[in-house]
Write a structure and sequence with these properties.
The chain is of the alpha+beta class. It has one domain (13-156): START domain (Alpha-D-Glucose-1,6-Bisphosphate, Chain A, domain 4, 2-Layer Sandwich), CATH 3.30.530.20. The protein is 27% helix and 43% strand. The protein has helices at residues 24-32, 37-40, 126-134, 136-156, and strands at residues 13-20, 44-49, 62-69, 72-84, 88-95, 98-109, 112-123. Strands 1-7-6-5-4-3-2 form a 7-stranded antiparallel sheet. A hairpin with a 2-residue loop joins strand 6 (98-109) and strand 7 (112-123). It is globular. The N and C termini lie far apart (40 Å).
Length: 157
């Protein structure tokens, strides 16, 4: 499996960014709330840690996430790779030969929060690499939908 370990990974690309009219602490708390993840991450059906986790410091914690993809549910294994309240949250997901590092940065901006979503994709096979390139537009579209829903929820709080 290709290692996807840090924000500075050269394969990291920005997918989307949005201004949220809410303080970074509120936005971060909503993003970090495992029980509310499915409210803003479209397609997420469930999220479970592999063991008891300190909610204030889940860095390194392993989890399983079920995501609805088309007409089926896929099971991904994950790990929290960054947890810096209220500015940075990241996790790695993998299933088979496909792995993805998703990272969110929150920056105070113009009385609210600028939230940016970045992603790096790793693949072991040429077919998976080709599929990732062909469906990059879909990944960016999903990232924009996630951020729009996050904005709606954070501003309504």
């Amino acid at each position: 499996m290709q290692a996807l370990s840090t924000w500075t990974d050269t394969s990291m690309q920005e997918l989307a960014a949005i201004h949220v009219d809410a303080p970074p602490e509120r936005v971060f708390d909503l993003m970090a709330d495992d029980q509310r993840r499915a409210e803003w991450m479209i397609g997420v059906e469930s999220f479970e840690y592999a063991s008891d986790v300190d909610p204030d410091d889940p860095l390194g914690a392993a989890f399983t996430q079920r995501i609805r993809e088309g007409g089926r549910t896929s099971v991904y294994q994950g790990e929290v790779t960054a947890f810096e309240r209220p500015s940075r949250l990241a996790w790695r997901l993998s299933r088979g030969s496909h792995s993805m590092l998703s990272e969110y940065h929150l920056t105070p901006f113009n009385g609210g929060t600028l939230v940016s979503s970045q992603c790096a994709v790793g693949a072991d096979t040429w077919l998976t690499r080709v599929m990732d390139v062909l469906f990059g537009w879909l990944t960016r579209r999903i990232a924009r939908q996630h951020l729009a829903k996050l904005k709606e929820l954070a501003e309504a709080a």
